[in-house]
Recover the amino acids of this structure.
């Protein structure tokens, strides 16, 4: 049976926690999310029921929290690997650690919570290197101390919090999505990511169709890490522009030239005018 027909045959009501999570997504995405969930059930029957009967991260109906960005506003889709493996940290939004509030700590550089969130820490360092604020040869805590002082100075124009950081991503049209939308300690992330591939197919198709219907530019895909690279197998990739890099938990990410060039002009560490 063709993929689209399988999806249609699996459309139904889903477990309550799934339905509640869908309801919290932006209305422009809800039908597509339902189709994506049906695609999962068509490929892996009982998968969503299994999630609902067990436990997974993120909690608090944040499974589809990444879909607060309206469909027509999406310019980039950034795929990480999966949620942080800590309840407070797993927000449902790719690499936005809920345990982080302030980004900077005067006298120390990055705040303690940022340093614990390895991917977020290395991403911020990459941005600072791209902006010429840091040298890629020296991104230590000592090198970050004057940066923190500068960022925290009154009227600096720099963001101070994770919330402001996330707002900058939204302003630039990012859909911050993980290849696997769940983390379960008893299931290997690569297995859950495989189960979510049919969902990703539906989401990519929705974005590609939007471009064809309205003459909008195709969104650019950014794939971080080996698990996210599985998305390259999907036929829905089509002509979508794709940027691939190692995952930001690798120190080499800080020196990744393609990522520096991609993000440099977005000024994610600066307050919007």
């Amino acid at each position: 049976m063709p993929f689209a027909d399988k999806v249609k045959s699996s459309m139904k009501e889903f477990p309550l926690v799934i339905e509640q999570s869908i309801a919290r997504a932006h209305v422009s995405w809800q039908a597509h999310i339902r189709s994506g969930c049906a695609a999962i059930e068509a490929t892996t029957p009982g998968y969503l029921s299994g999630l609902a009967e067990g436990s997974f991260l993120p909690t608090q109906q944040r499974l589809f929290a990444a879909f607060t960005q309206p469909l027509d506003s999406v310019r980039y889709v950034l795929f990480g690997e999966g949620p942080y493996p800590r309840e407070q940290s797993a927000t449902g939004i790719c690499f936005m650690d809920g345990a982080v509030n302030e980004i900077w700590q005067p006298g120390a550089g990055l705040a303690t919570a940022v340093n614990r969130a390895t991917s977020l820490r290395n991403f911020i360092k990459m941005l600072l290197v791209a902006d010429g604020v840091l040298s890629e040869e020296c991104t230590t805590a000592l090198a970050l101390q004057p940066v923190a002082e500068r960022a925290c100075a009154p009227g600096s124009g720099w963001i101070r919090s994770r919330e402001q950081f996330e707002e900058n991503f939204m302003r630039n049209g990012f859909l911050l999505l993980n290849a696997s939308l769940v983390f379960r300690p008893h299931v290997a992330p690569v297995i859950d990511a495989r189960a979510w591939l049919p969902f990703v197919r539906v989401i990519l198709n929705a974005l590609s169709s939007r471009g064809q219907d309205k003459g909008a530019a195709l969104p650019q895909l950014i794939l971080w890490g080996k698990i996210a690279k599985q998305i390259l197998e999907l036929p829905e990739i089509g002509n979508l522009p794709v940027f691939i890099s190692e995952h930001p938990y690798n120190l080499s990410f800080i020196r990744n030239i393609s990522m520096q060039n991609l993000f440099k002009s977005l000024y994610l560490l600066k307050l919007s005018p």
Notes: Residues 189-214 form the longest helix (26 residues). The chain is about 45% helix and 10% strand. The domain at 3-87+168-240 is CATH 3.40.470.10 (Uracil-DNA Glycosylase, subunit E). The beta strands are 76-80, 104-105, 109-110, 174-178, 220-224, 242-245.
